[in-house]
Amino acid sequence: MDIQAIEQQILNGAWCFPNYAIYQVGGAAGGECYLIVSNSGSAALIDAGYAWDAPATLANIRRVLTDVGASHLEWLLLTHSHYDHAAGAGYLAGHMPGLKVACSAYAARVFSRPGALATMRTLNASEAYLHGLTDFEEVPASLTIDRVLEPGDTVRAADMDFTVIAAPGHTKCSIAFWCADRRFLVSCETGCVYAGPLDAAFRDVLGNPAPQGLEVMADPAYLVGYASSLDFIAREIDLHPDVLLVPHFGIMTGAAATSFLHAADYFSRYAADLIMQAHTAGASNDEVIAQFKAVFYNDYVQAIQPEAAFDLNASYLVPLVIRELSDAQ
């Protein structure tokens, strides 16, 4: 299937392709949950969004399944354990008989720890409070994982065979999913987050413009591994996906998908150069974070990510780069 030759259609909130469609069904902005439905009516979920808005997510899922006549929703595939991707898993599994939850072995260990679930519960509540809610769905005290996934495993979901790809970098538990037959890649935040169109005035740390053909920005999200993130992005590029599911954005196809992957590689390296240049010049960690934020917390990102969340990620990302690259010297 040559997706590049097919005009992508977005119909009723779906990205439609010859054999399947993908719906963004998260109950609130920032809560990641995508529903893949094949033409035969088989369906699967990618991530589960927040818990606080899980009833709305469930309503969206049921509406789509009813509208398209889908009959079989078997798998919820989690890319990693962060609360905006996984906190709603318990609620969805508890309200959809037959739905099975799958994640990486590391994520399964995270979900088995009461302290980790308590942290998810706190973050979920904080997000609900930001939306003015006091009565909302909590993260459950436990989460049943029906299948633990290892790199190279195959999962049959929505009439597609997805191969599990290890993707440590954003978290230690991050994974991606690759359907070779459809050339469809479900990425994760290790591969960066879309950060809007590239400003024509952009210059790197040496004063050079971005490489010709680079049209978008990508925010790096390596919280536990810089080199491992670059390795994952390189493997994504080598796959040459025709369809790419970008976290906190949606679907890109053809040339747009390729452009984003190259932007992810470029801006991951640029961010590290920016951080190390400031650090080497004697800037404190707070000053380095401020310089990083001035570039990457742009107008587009401000519209989709709370400042506190960006600052928290930066507080992990900047010291990680300094530590990892200083040790490599």
From TrEMBL:
Gene3D superfamilies with a match to the protein in the record: Ribonuclease Z/Hydroxyacylglutathione hydrolase-like (3.60.15.10)
SMART domains recorded: Lactamase_B (SM00849)
Keyword set, alphabetical order: Hydrolase
Organism: Cryptobacterium curtum (strain ATCC 700683 / DSM 15641 / CCUG 43107 / 12-3)
Protein name stated in the entry: Zn-dependent hydrolase, glyoxylase
Domain Metallo-beta-lactamase: 30-248
CDD domains: metallo-hydrolase-like_MBL-fold
MF GO annotations: hydrolase activity
Top-level taxon of origin: Bacteria
